Amino acid sequence: MKIKNTTQRYGLIAILLHWLMAILLIGLLILGLYMTSLPISHEKLKLYGWHKEYGLLALFLVIFRLAWRLTNLVPVLTLPLWEIIAARTVHWLFYVFMFAMPITGWLLTSAAGLPPSFFGLFVLPVLVSQNDQLMKLFQEIHSYLGYGLIALICMHVSAALKHYFINKDDILQRIFS
């Protein structure tokens, strides 16, 4: 397998980033839904800490992923024009969500007066001063983005399964090997 993408297949780096980000984001979404349902406790605070740290990891990874995406070929899609437009739109929307989610989380934690730490290695700067109204606004935006990301993931997976089971083309296999 090649490191870089070709016109026919994704390369090793793109594949690893895809699956690493998929696992990380789905895990963060599940954790976010779970931890917000808990009553205030030591466990809830611990989970919030993990959510912030792994959310920052997602931000750093998406910066690398976007740089990789912009400097590599994208495999050609031999599909009807509407499917090409839909696929490209969904992929770019993923980037919007992958940036917006951690940024709003960072803004939310800043407005709460709790600067985020990256696994205890360093603390990120506070983006806004402590403000309860801003905290509630960023919390709502972060929540809506989360539900939007869940919908986008469902569309993406559904399209991939449609190509595999109905169209019987190689679209899905290109991200596996």
Q: Number of helical runs?
A: 4
CATH topology: Fumarate Reductase Cytochrome B subunit
Quote the beta fraction: under 5%
Largest sheet, spatial ordering of strands: 1-2
- Mind telling me the CATH class? Mainly Alpha
Mean pLDDT: 96
Count of discrete domains:
1
Give the helix level as a range of percent.
Answer: 55-70%
Shape: elongated
What radius of gyration results from the CA coordinates?
A: 18 Å
SSE series: HHHEEH
Distance between the termini: 7 Å
Low confidence ranges: none
Secondary structure class reads mainly alpha
CATH architecture level-2 label: Up-down Bundle
* Major β-sheet annotation: 2 strands, antiparallel
Number of strands: 2
Walk me through the structure.
This protein has a single domain, classed as Up-down Bundle (Fumarate Reductase Cytochrome B subunit), CATH 1.20.950. Helices cover 68% and strands 2% of the residues. The chain is built from four helices and two strands, in the order αααββα. A two-stranded antiparallel ribbon has the order 1-2. A hairpin with a 3-residue loop joins strand 1 and strand 2 (122-123). The N and C termini lie close together (7 Å).
Which key features would you list for this structure?
single chain, mainly alpha, Fumarate Reductase Cytochrome B subunit, two-stranded antiparallel ribbon, 4 helices, elongated
Structure described in brief:
This protein is mainly α.
Topology diagram in text:
Blueprint: H1 12-36, H2 42-70, H3 81-111, E1 117-118, E2 122-123, H4 132-167
Antiparallel strand pairs: 1-2
Helix pairs in contact: 1-2, 2-3, 3-4
